[in-house]
Amino acid sequence: MYEIQDVPGKGKGLIATQAIPKGTRILSEKPIITVPKQTTMSIEQFARLVSRQVDALSKNHQQELLALPTVHTFNDDAQKYLEITRANALPANDGEAGIFLQACRINHACDNNAHNNWNKNIKQHTVHALRDIEKGEEITIYYMGAYWNRETRIRRLQERFGFICSCGLCSLPPDQSQESDKRLEKLLHLDDLIGRGGVLGVLSNPLQKLHHVDHRVRLHEQGPNDSGLPQAYFFAAQIAIAHGDLARARIFVDRAVDGRICFEGDDSHNVSELKALAHDMSEDELYGLSMKWKTAVNDVPQGLDPAELEDWLWRREKPRQPGQLADLRDRTTFPAFPGLPHDRDESYYFEDPSGLMGLSRRNWCFLAEIRQVTAFTRLQFEIEDVDGQSLPLFFYTDGGGMGLERAQVKEGFTVAILQAKQHSFAFDRPGIRHEQPTRMKVRRTPVTIRAV
Question: In this protein, which residues make up the domain named SET (predicted)?
Fold first, then answer.
């Protein structure tokens, strides 16, 4: 399936000797040396640990080991073994890294066509094709944990491994490279938003979390590879399970299983765990924390075309028809404070051709009751949202809101703010920083806005 050959500018590498379809297991290999990933051992102790294992190898394996590349110079054999381990070790047993004579020959590319993984079930390091690989094409993996922008990738690769990457992604023309960097930075930003708040975040604002994952999936599908899709689908499944939505959760889990099988093999530990989850999702520790989206596994609408199924699956909004009245109970259109995007969250906006932030991807209106009015250098409200959560609203409009008639800002009145966003104040609790007067209305007559 492959041969180790000389690769110009890279030393040795793995070259496909035949066409390799996506999902194919390219190799499966046991380590010849293992070392702890983190240790309190001194350099001398670590070198002795490696040396003892090298001495136990056959002469052929010792020669193959010594032929592996290093980044730094060395003074003796023990130091050389240490440098080889530092430069080439790949994940092995839990808490360990290992040297694999075949897998360690695989070179890096930021647009890698293969995925490497430690398979704890079979105790071997595996490599699978992320996409179809042509005969004669070099097999590559990604050496780093996260897919950073081009500048960061080049710097970290040079610092850690001593080379400058010249793969297709790093060699893009400047305009295309900038577009690629924007996509990768959005992925990292979405990862942060999805993980923010942990279980509490999933419970307090599931729709926003689900839409973040939806956005992440669509960005992954734009390339250079979709190795992050299984984890994204698993995140979506957790959100659905936490709110009792077994119909959507089952689809998400099945997609995560398919992705893991493709990139890790049917015998991987991750696949085993996902299959167990799919068998009975109601046994998951998240199930039952909320039942606001409760469905049975078979409650999937029938007769939907692929696009309609995706809209249903991700709970995407349907455009409201002109003149159609909004439902005040709709938390997508009228969210509570935790359901508002943060003002640093760019995923809610389109970008215009100049790269500046443009129009919102959707519309929403934040409703709250005024509980207290304070006016010093600027106007401040203490307000309660539809769930009774208290928060501050500070006016950063021209004049700081001091031009508003006092008859408009009495306690008990309702304030409505279009496209309101959360803001983290350095001097107070998180609240709303109001800057655009045209986006706020105050209803003089008190109205009941509490959730039913």
Answer: 1-144
Task: Return the half-sphere exposure (C-beta side, CA atoms, 13 A cut-off) of residue 393.
Answer: 29
Strands (DSSP E) along 63-102, which ranges? Answer: 90-91, 96-99
- 321-451 — its CATH code? 2.40.50.140
**Angle CA 152–155–156, to nearest 5:** 85
User: Does the model's pTM come out above 0.70?
Assistant: yes
Name the CATH code of domain 2-160 (choices 2.170.270.10, 3.40.140.10, 3.40.50.2300, 3.30.530.20): 2.170.270.10
Backbone phi and psi for residue 69, each to the nearest 5 degrees, phi listed first: -75, 155
Phi, psi of 93, rounded to the nearest 5 degrees? -60, 165
pLDDT in tens, 79-106: 788 888 888 999 998 889 999 999 999 9
**Contact between 68 and 87 (Cβ < 8 Å):** yes
pLDDT in tens, 274-302: 999 999 999 999 998 999 999 999 999 99
Residue 137 CB-half CA count within 13 A: 19
